Here is the input.
Amino acid sequence: MSVRVRMAPSPTGTMHVGTARAALFNWLFARHHGGAFILRIDDTDRERSTSEFEKEILGSLRWLGLDWDEGVGVGGPHGSYRQSDRLHRYREIASELVESGAAYYDDRPSDQLESLRQLAQKEGRHPGHYIRRPDISADSGVIRLAIPQEAPVVVDDIVRGSVSFEAPDIDDFVILRSNGTPTYHLASTVDDVDYDITHVARGEDLLPSTPKHILLTRAMGYVEPLYAHLPLLFGTDGRKLSKRHGATSLSEFRDDGFLPDAVFNYLAILGWSLDAETTVFSREQAIEAFELTDVSKSPAVFDPEKLTWMNGEYVRAMGSEEFTRLVRPDVERSVGRPLSHDEWERFEEIAPLVQERTKLLPEAGDQVTFLFNDIDEYDEKSWSKVMARKGVPAVLDEGLTRMSALEVWDAPSIEATLREMPESLGIGAGKAFQPLRVAVTGSSISPPLFESISALGRERTLDRIGRARQKLG
RNA sequence: GGUCCCGUCGUCCAGAGGCCCAGGACGCCGGCCUUUCAAGCCGGAAACGCCAGUUCGAAUCUGGUCGGGACUGCCA
Here is the structure.
């Protein structure tokens, strides 16, 4: 049978990077084997599921470039791929299991069950030792699966190897709530069977639930899929990745100026590697090399710094036209207004130089506002460090004179005349150029000087140098 | 508490008995380049948690120990 894998997010929140990483591995596995990647929505928790979250999740998946072959949004032979549309199916299975004796109704009140759990806790045993079919049978309440006590359940995990669970350590878990809705265990297991899922690759947090899913599948009369439990993602403090660690949802990364290719690449190296040497690689390379058997067993710390570095790699690798197109919104946001055609050409002139200096897209905007907005105030540190020195007025005067005399206003011409300044003034290059930089860009940190001056234009440049000169008195 | 998982540089990976006095990447430190900032290039510090055992030989196998984590819901 050909490979069929799925990704089954719950629309109870935004797309988390951990979920995205699991989706990515499933996608790579499907693409590598020429199989199908299916998107199912696990929305059995009606209280917390919303269509807004569902939309957000679909959008994030598309943004990352994980296209699915069947599922919500694209359809397929199995209906809506939304669990809330299949409640009748889960109820049907649940009653079949009750009829066959594999499951039973339980109407015990929650406080009674709670005391059983406390008893187990007190005796140092798994709750499974007490959460069992009561002597008195019921015909209402929740439905629990009766765990066969004969043999242990062995999970043959693709990444972890053989993991064994003793039957008494598995409780008779609820498959159908008293309100008739299925629990995650039931819905997920039924869907995996109905959708012919061959491999279930999911977070390691679900490993303890896997024996339950295996037993449920078998009780339904089917053979369970192959499982692969992926290592979890941690924050830099070694704890489970959460909001405390900054951005955790995919859309936040998108908004922060990360590129989907970079996020894809970074997520792929968390728990997997292309080979011993390569860190930056394409989707095609990843698809070619990916195998679930190569996935690491140990949890990975999500490192925003490395992601940022990788984003810079991708920013620099893209074509200059693409970069220009991509950063337009960021530039206009920094400038505070839409740019005219002429202004945009000014930006395009130095865009390649900005591109080299950009890791996150919004940074590009900050680098070029000087091209479009007047300098209301100079960067304080830059001014005190560069402009407060002796000889600066002379430098500005000399620069002004030289540039005023230029017939052609382009970077080579500007450079040619300014290059003569240090010698004619008898000062070092830094002392000659830094004051001009501050005068023209407002800061001692900027894109390369000659190109910046060229892009700014003659009138604005001369005006700004004049203003800085005036400020110096 | 119980069940289960994990344990190589600070971090992400490579390593499936000798190729490893452990390799690549981020970060860090130093240098080169340079008008600033980046980028680039060169170099450096930095790890097999610990203890036993198996073996001629162990990061790789086994046991123990310590540490971390997940789960322990009519949440997924």
In short: The mean pLDDT of chain A is 93.
